[in-house]
Design a protein that fits this description.
Elements lengths: L1 E10 L2 E10 L7 H19 L7 H6 L7 H16 L16 H14 L8 E6 L2 E5 L8 E7 L2 E11 L2 E7 L8 E2 L4 E2 L5 E6 L2 H14 L3 H8 L4 E5 L1
Antiparallel strand pairs: 1-2, 2-3, 3-4, 4-7, 5-6, 7-10, 8-9, 10-11
Length: about 240
């Protein structure tokens, strides 16, 4: 019989939920440690990359100090790649306040944390960090995860549902945090859309493409189809 277990913690300034599904998950004593490992990864990422912590590596970079941390070097390389992949619509070096990789780091952190769960074997997982979601179904006999896409004009309604076995869903928009996504071309908040939801194989790149598509504004669907046809997009205007 398939069982379920769930955990929720406040990490990176947001509620993060982890759902595990599979035979025997209610009785498995090792799953609590696996869940704690997931949240530990996210807490470590927050310590390194938070723009709100004076002692983070990102804050040091913004003060003009070099960082030699290997994970920071990895993220800097990914940010350069993301800037190229998105035609500059994702550019953390052109944001007000200085370098801010948040539009990549959350999806990257979710991807890293979810990867630790594959060692559990016959266990499905759904890790959701503020709308950046990593999903996995371990057995072909079990159903896919279903992820509702919230309508930003009516948060009690849905624009649709994504059905995912293994992959990612990421949403960028104004409903939860207001106009916080900046268009690096102008340095001003992007206001042409209400929300963008992107799904595809990688939480990291789903997050980047959702942020970049939101900054793009109208025409984001056609832009993403040209840049990354393996990703699906839903836009609310």
């Amino acid at each position: 019989m398939t069982g379920r277990r769930a955990w929720v913690e406040q990490v990176m300034g947001m509620p993060v939920s982890l759902h595990l599904r599979g035979p025997g998950v209610r009785e498995d004593p090792g799953l609590a440690a696996a869940a704690e490992g997931v949240f530990a990864v996210l807490r470590d990422v927050d310590r390194l990359f938070s723009t709100y912590r004076d002692d983070s590596e990102v804050s040091a970079i913004r003060r003009g100090e070099p960082s030699r941390h290997p994970l920071v070097r990895d993220v800097l390389g990914l940010c350069r790649e993301a800037r190229d992949r998105t035609d500059g619509l994702f550019d953390p070096w052109l944001l007000p306040g200085g370098f801010d990789p948040s539009g990549l780091v959350k999806g990257w952190a979710v991807e890293r944390a979810a990867a630790t769960l594959h060692a559990l074997g016959d266990v499905d997982h759904c890790l959701n960090a503020g709308g950046d979601i990593a999903l996995h179904v371990a057995a072909p006999s079990r159903p896919a995860w279903r992820v509702g896409i919230e309508d930003p004009r009516d948060r009690g309604a849905q624009l649709g549902v994504r059905t995912v076995r293994t992959g990612a869903v990421a949403t960028s928009g104004t409903a939860a945090r207001g106009a916080h996504i900046v268009d690096p071309r102008s340095g001003a908040p992007a206001t042409g859309l209400l929300s963008v939801t992107v799904s595809g194989p990688s939480p990291l790149w789903a997050d980047v493409y959702a942020t970049a598509a939101f900054a793009h504004g109208p025409g984001a669907e056609a832009w993403l189809r040209r840049r990354a046809p393996e990703y699906e997009i839903t836009v609310a205007v």
